């Protein structure tokens, strides 16, 4: 089953949006398969964003990601990579539609509260980077108990 990596960035954590963000993915029907709060080192943030190393905003982006704890998550479900990006909204919150996470809760691109993998392959790389210990492979057994 498809999985994606979602990270609530330091501003999302500090603004108390963790529950709201998790709620949106749960309400959609996706399964939470991994979750941890971590403050990452500069070298780790640089590795996560290595594809953007040549961009002028890269140093500021790395400073932002290491400025406080982030919530790292693995979400699972059919089409979760693309649908997750739709739930999150456009990179620049000024262009994110209302109803998306960034459209509802962010204003500027430099503080856009959440990251989501942009493809199945990058999701695989990011999950391996952020969860080298692996994630539990639980399957729902609640369906027959919930009416
Ligand atoms: P993310 O990786 O965080 O989900 O964001 P994304 O794919 O929507 O956007 P990407 O182009 O990969 O950029 C990664 C993050 O860099 C910051 N950014 N700042 N012009 C700027 O100042 C600028 N452009 C991008 C944002 O935090 C963006 O999410």
From TrEMBL:
Protein name in the entry: Nucleoside diphosphate kinase
Keyword Transferase attached: yes
Similarity field: Belongs to the NDK family.
HAMAP family: NDP_kinase (MF_00451)
UniProt organism field: Iris pallida
Domain Nucleoside diphosphate kinase-like: 1-137
NCBIfam families on file: PRK00668.1
Any single biological process term in GO: CTP biosynthetic process
SMART domains attached to this UniProt entry: NDK
Taxonomic lineage from the root: Eukaryota, Viridiplantae, Streptophyta, Embryophyta, Tracheophyta
């Amino acid at each position: 089953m498809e999985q994606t990596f979602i990270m609530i960035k330091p501003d999302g954590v500090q603004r108390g949006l963790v529950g709201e963000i998790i709620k949106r993915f749960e309400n959609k029907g996706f399964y939470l398969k991994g979750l941890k709060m971590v403050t990452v080192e500069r070298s780790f943030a640089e590795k996560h964003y290595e594809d953007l190393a040549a961009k002028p905003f890269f140093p500021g982006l790395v400073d932002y990601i290491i400025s406080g704890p982030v919530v790292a998550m693995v979400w699972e479900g059919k089409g979760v990579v693309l649908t997750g990006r739709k739930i999150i909204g456009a990179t620049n919150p000024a262009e994110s539609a209302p109803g998306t996470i960034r459209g509802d809760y962010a204003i500027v691109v430099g503080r856009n509260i959440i990251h989501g993998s942009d493809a199945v392959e990058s999701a695989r790389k990011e999950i391996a980077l952020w969860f080298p210990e692996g994630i539990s492979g639980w399957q729902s057994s609640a369906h027959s108990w919930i009416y």
